Amino acid sequence: MNLENICHQTCALAKQAGEFIRKESTRFKQTDVEIKSFNQLVSYVDKTAEEILVQGLKTIFPEAGFITEEKTIATEEKEWMWVVDPLDGTTNFVHQIPVYSVSIGLLQNKKPMLGVVYEINRDELFYASKESKAFLNGVEINVKQNHDLSKSLLATGFPYYDFEVMPKYIHALQRLMRESQGMRRLGSAAVDLAYVACGRFDAFFEYGLSPWDVAGGALIVERAGGKLSSFYGDDNFIFGKTIIASSANLYTDFFNVIDESFNK
Ligand code: 2AM
Ligand code: CA
């Protein structure tokens, strides 16, 4: 088992799937869109990209099982699991907003060991393994050094199906709008995490996410020197549906806002 070698091959595969998605974006039609469930869009592009990834990942590391968004392969509990979102930011893709990505994580006993996020339109490949630093197109990346929430640029994803905790979310937004330099909503959690890792965003938070939205980006943030937790401050951020990712310096101040909004 050579994580570096697996990471290298996974990067090449993510780019290959990304090239397929980029090519399809020019001929994609609105009639290709299917509705999976409320506000959950999908098309042949997501499914075919996932098939490309699953085939390739099986060859790269045959011992690992899979958790994939489009369920082109059954989930089988194993020590090692690939966690795959073939197209993170499908809503953007469908509306021709150019922020979407391929996201791949590899977990061992549910802990991230490798992460690859390929942002397709800017041709930006973010990756890290537990045994390496984090990189963007071959250059080492690090989270921001800023200590000051009032100088920070933040990212989030708006709730799109679970509206019960909306008042708490709005409370957090109100505070962060006043207390930070600004807030962005890109529409791909994997890209949000990659942007925290490379210091474009100081911090990111979202609830209602699935493992495939975050498994790839989370390790990249960690290896770039950032901090991750759930909204409750624990490490259940891959399967627990809430995530905070932040530069190390800002984590406590950022967490305090989320904690005060959601947990008090
Ligand atoms: P997806 O495109 O792979 O589904 C952003 O809020 C995150 O939530 C993205 O990672 C996106 O991943 C996921 N998401 C799922 N459905 C969404 C929707 N209807 N609107 C916005 N984001 C959605
Ligand atoms: Ca997706």
Descriptive overview:
The chain is an alpha+beta fold. It folds into 2 domains: 3-140, Fructose-1,6-Bisphosphatase, Chain A, domain 1; 149-263, D-Maltodextrin-Binding Protein, domain 2. It has 7 helices and 14 strands. It has helices at 3-25, 44-60, 90-94, 166-179, 189-197, 211-223, 251-262, and strands at 34-37, 40-42, 65-68, 80-88, 101-108, 111-119, 124-129, 134-136, 139-141, 153-156, 182-184, 203-207, 226-229, 242-247. Strands 3-4-5-6-7-8-9 form a 7-stranded mixed β-sheet, with helices on both faces. A hairpin with a 2-residue loop joins strand 1 and strand 2 (40-42). Helix 1 (3-25) runs antiparallel to helix 2, helix 4 packs antiparallel against helix 7 (251-262) and helix 5 packs parallel to helix 6 (211-223). The chain is globular. Bound molecules: adenosine-2'-monophosphate and calcium ion (CA). Residues 46, 69, 85, 87-88, 90 line the site of calcium ion.
Helix/strand layout:
Blueprint: H1 3-25, E1 34-37, E2 40-42, H2 44-60, E3 65-68, E4 80-88, H3 90-94, E5 101-108, E6 111-119, E7 124-129, E8 134-136, E9 139-141, E10 153-156, H4 166-179, E11 182-184, H5 189-197, E12 203-207, H6 211-223, E13 226-229, E14 242-247, H7 251-262
Parallel strand pairs: 3-4, 10-11, 10-12
Antiparallel strand pairs: 1-2, 4-5, 5-6, 6-7, 7-8, 8-9, 12-14, 13-14
The chain binds adenosine-2'-monophosphate and calcium ion.
Calcium ion binds at residues 46, 69, 85, 87-88, 90.
Shape: globular
Strand content: 25-35%
The fourth-level CATH homologous superfamily of the largest domain is Fructose-1,6-Bisphosphatase, subunit A, domain 1
* Parts with pLDDT < 50 across at least 5 consecutive residues: none
Cross-sheet strand order for the largest sheet = 3-4-5-6-7-8-9
Q: What is the CATH architecture descriptor of the largest domain? A: 2-Layer Sandwich
The helix/strand order is HEEHEEHEEEEEEHEHEHEEH
SS field, number of helical segments: 7
The biggest sheet, with number of strands, parallel, antiparallel or mixed sense and barrel status, is: 7 strands, mixed
Helix content: 25-40%
Give the count of structural domains.
Answer: 2
N-to-C span: 45 Å
- Alpha-carbon Rg, integer: 17 Å
Structural class: alpha+beta
Give the CATH topology of the largest domain. Answer: Fructose-1,6-Bisphosphatase, Chain A, domain 1
Which CATH class of the largest domain applies here?
Alpha Beta
Structure ligands: adenosine-2'-monophosphate, calcium ion
